[in-house]
Amino acid sequence: MSNTHVPLISSGVAGPLGVLHLPRLWVKVSLEASGKLAAGYPGIGAGYDMMVLNALGLNPDAVKKFITESKPTYPQFEAWIRKQPGVKLDRATIHKLNVSIAGYIHADDTRKGILGASGLADDGSVLPDAINLNNLDDWFEFHAAVLK
Hints:
Elements: H1 22-33, H2 48-56, H3 60-70, H4 74-82, H5 91-102, H6 108-117, H7 130-147
Helix pairs in contact: 1-3, 2-5, 6-7
């Protein structure tokens, strides 16, 4: 088995705060801090990661530093978030963020690439949202790295 890991927590998962993708962000940064994040996965990337950090008013460098230095459990990470100055955790902010995450659609070439790698036709039979496509991509990468 590989010493690196595909982050198998879906962007469609929320923790106690109710923020979609936040558990995945935590696991990716945690794996990166330990040198165990699979190649091709950023600890903090430009997509969902930045959507979450920006919406909540969190500094990406501060998040990375806290996770790297403290190696928190997920509940400890959420507790740290609650204490950050200016953090936005009101229901309206979280709802708006979650709707934007759930409704995000990848570009056509990204969708075609993910479906093609998994041997699926790009015929509209697979839900086109990025959460589902990213899940397929993760499962493909996990299979190739661990199960094959």
